[in-house]
């Protein structure tokens, strides 16, 4: 039988045997029983999440300003000042929607990583869409967060097209169970959203090295634009990344969550956001079903209710170390 990541259609039985978690199973068995609804506000609002992280000593991107009303909008030029790089995002956005990355400024025009030029009025129009709730969860009115644009560590920018890669760590009961790096492509316009054409790169929890990659669900070995190899890349400060992820579990109280981080060239790991409903493409990026890791983590948590963060990380490194290698037949798509 072919490996599951090589095929578009599989039987329910095959999926169960491989431990693949679907949306219904994720919601019924892992999200609803372990994530009390009252805690969602802690992670659905990026401003609150950043405040919590800072209280726990986790580094986050600096906030330049918050736009929540017409008066704030009139002060945008003061907030931006002479800054030529920054990120604008909805406080209640999800899935990378509404994030505007500005990588340069010249002659009064702002530049996106793709080279697209925007005027100040166009930037204001984007912020207006954020305030109207165009990108927010449930279409609720929102506020715009303007913050530091991460200067990603060079070892990671070498495998990402004009955008800073981010790292998603899926946690269960405080145990890191699966990790994926998301690298941008020309198609994704500097964003790390897989649905917009970014790459999903599986990471070995034991070592922090990349082990396999997918693009639009298909295995690849080379970046489609840069033609560089995507596997065998060592993520910097790996132990700190895992420690930060465990801290995010502790600060939110959520049992099942995804923690997104970036690695800045000078500042090191920065927490970007926490997600109470992390997506499932991470399974394809790693070539293994989540259930094969969620069940052992649940059993461990039930047996050792007050295990230290160091012990949790050690358990994950030992039991969830990569056991597969990238397919020899994979090629750049």
Automatic annotation (TrEMBL):
Keyword ATP-binding: yes
Keywords: ATP-binding, Nucleotide-binding
Domain ATP-grasp: 50-303
InterPro entries, alphabetized: ATP-grasp, RimK-rel_E_lig, RimK-rel_E_lig_ATP-grasp
PANTHER family given in the database record: BETA-CITRYLGLUTAMATE SYNTHASE B-RELATED (PTHR21621:SF0), RIBOSOMAL PROTEIN S6 MODIFICATION PROTEIN (PTHR21621)
NCBIfam families: rimK_rel_E_lig
Full protein name: Alpha-L-glutamate ligase-like protein
Organism, scientific name: Haloferula chungangensis
């Amino acid at each position: 039988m072919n490996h599951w990541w090589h095929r578009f259609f599989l039987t329910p039985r095959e999926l169960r045997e491989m431990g693949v978690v679907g949306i219904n199973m994720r919601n019924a068995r892992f999200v609803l029983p372990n994530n009390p609804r009252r805690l969602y506000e802690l992670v659905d609002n990026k401003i609150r999440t950043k405040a919590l992280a800072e209280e726990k000593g986790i580094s986050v991107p600096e906030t330049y300003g918050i736009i929540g009303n017409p008066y704030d909008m009139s002060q945008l030029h003061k907030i931006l000042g002479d800054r030529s790089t920054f990120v604008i995002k909805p406080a209640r956005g999800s899935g990378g929607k509404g994030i505007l990355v500005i990588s340069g400024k010249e002659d009064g025009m702002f530049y996106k990583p793709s080279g697209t030029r925007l005027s100040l009025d166009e930037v204001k129009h984007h912020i207006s869409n954020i305030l109207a709730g165009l990108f927010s969860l449930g279409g609720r009115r929102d506020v715009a967060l303007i913050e530091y644009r991460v200067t990603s560590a060079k070892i990671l920018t070498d495998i990402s097209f004009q955008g800073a890669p981010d790292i998603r760590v899926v946690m269960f009961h405080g145990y890191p169970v699966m990790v994926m790096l998301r690298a941008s492509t020309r198609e994704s316009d500097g964003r790390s959203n897989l649905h917009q054409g970014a790459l999903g790169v599986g990471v070995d929890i034991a070592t922090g090295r990349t082990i396999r990659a997918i693009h639009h669900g298909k295995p690849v070995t080379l970046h489609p634009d840069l033609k560089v190899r995507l596997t065998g890349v060592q993520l910097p400060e790996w132990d700190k990344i895992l420690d930060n992820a465990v801290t995010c579990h502790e600060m939110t109280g959520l049992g099942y969550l995804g923690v997104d981080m970036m690695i800045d060239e000078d500042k090191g790991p920065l927490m970007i956001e926490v997600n109470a409903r992390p997506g499932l493409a991470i399974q394809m990026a790693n070539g293994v079903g989540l259930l094969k890791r969620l069940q052992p983590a649940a059993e461990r948590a039930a047996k050792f209710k007050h295990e230290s963060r160091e012990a949790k990380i050690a358990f994950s490194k030992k039991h969830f170390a990569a056991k597969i290698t990238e397919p020899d037949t994979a090629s750049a798509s």
